[in-house]
Design brief:
The chain has 243 residues and is an alpha+beta fold. Helix content is 52%, strand content 14%.
C-alpha cells in the first residue's frame, strides 16, 4: 500500500469515528476507539489505531491515559506534544466541568455523587491522596483541597490541620476522600481509626462529618453507607455528652 492509499484508508476510518460520535456520542465507543478519536484531533492524517491500543496497554484504562503525565504519553510511538496536550486538555476540562456543576448546588446527597465527581481523577493515582470537601449548611461545595499526599503504603493525616482548614473555610460539613492505589477500596484498621478521630474532632467543633469515601479502581467504600460515621458519632456523644 502506497502512502496515498494509506492516508485515504485512515481518512475513511476517521470519518466513520466522527459519524459514530455524532450519532450516539462516546457511549457507543470502546475505550480504544475513544482514545483513537481524541488522538486524531492532533494528528489528522495518520492511522492511530495501534497507537491507541498501545496507550491502553501502557496506562491500563481510558482514565489512566487521560491522567498520564505528558512525558509518559510522548514516550509512545505516534504521540507527539500536540496529541498529548489534547489528551491533557480533555482531562482537565472534564474536571473543571464537574467542579463547576457542583458549585452552588446541593452537592452532597449520596456517596455515589461524590464517587462520580472524583473517581476519574483519583482512581489511577500511584500514591495516596487525602482530599477534604468543605460544605456549607446547605450541603453546597465551598472548596475542595488535597491536604495530604502519601506513599503507596499510606499517608500521614493530621486532624488538627484539617479542622484548622475547616474553620478557615467556615465549613458546616466535611467529606473526606482518599484513594487506595491497590484498587481495593476496603478500609484498613488505620483508615477506621483515622475516621473515628476525625469524626470526634469535628464533633467537638460542632462540624458534621458526612462521609469518608475510599476510592478504588472502579468501586468505592463509604463509611456513612456502612453506618460507621453514625457509630463514631454516637460513641462520642455517649462518652462526652451523656453524663
Amino acid at each position: 500500500m502506497n502512502k496515498e492509499d494509506w492516508q485515504n484508508k485512515g481518512k475513511g476510518h476517521r470519518e466513520r469515528l466522527r459519524n459514530k460520535f455524532l450519532e450516539g456520542g462516546l457511549d457507543r465507543f470502546s475505550d480504544e476507539e475513544a482514545i483513537e478519536f481524541l488522538l486524531t484531533l492532533g494528528t489528522p492524517r495518520k492511522d492511530l489505531k495501534s497507537t491507541a491500543r498501545e496507550c491502553l496497554k501502557k496506562f491500563k484504562s481510558f482514565s489512566g491515559v487521560l491522567s498520564a503525565p505528558l512525558d509518559k504519553l510522548t514516550e509512545i510511538n505516534g504521540i507527539g506534544q500536540i496529541n498529548a496536550l489534547y489528551l491533557k486538555l480533555v482531562h482537565q476540562a472534564s474536571a473543571r466541568y464537574l467542579k463547576d456543576r457542583a458549585s452552588g448546588k446541593n452537592f452532597f446527597s449520596s456517596s455515589r455523587m461524590i464517587f462520580d465527581y472524583l473517581f476519574h481523577s483519583m482512581r489511577d493515582l500511584k500514591r495516596e491522596v487525602f482530599k477534604v470537601l468543605f460544605l456549607n449548611r446547605r450541603n453546597e461545595l465551598i472548596f475542595d483541597q488535597d491536604l495530604f499526599h502519601g506513599s503507596l503504603t499510606g499517608s500521614a493525616v493530621y486532624p488538627r490541620e484539617i479542622m484548622t482548614s475547616a474553620l478557615e473555610q467556615n465549613a458546616a460539613g466535611l467529606v473526606f476522600v482518599h484513594n487506595h492505589p491497590s484498587g481495593n477500596p476496603s478500609p484498613s484498621l488505620e483508615d477506621k481509626r483515622l475516621t473515628k478521630d476525625l469524626v470526634w474532632a469535628a464533633r467537638l467543633l460542632l462540624i458534621q462529618v458526612l462521609d469518608h469515601i475510599i476510592i478504588g479502581y472502579n468501586s468505592y467504600y463509604s463509611f456513612a453507607d456502612e453506618g460507621l460515621v453514625k457509630i463514631y458519632t454516637d460513641e462520642y456523644e455517649q462518652r462526652f455528652l451523656q453524663r
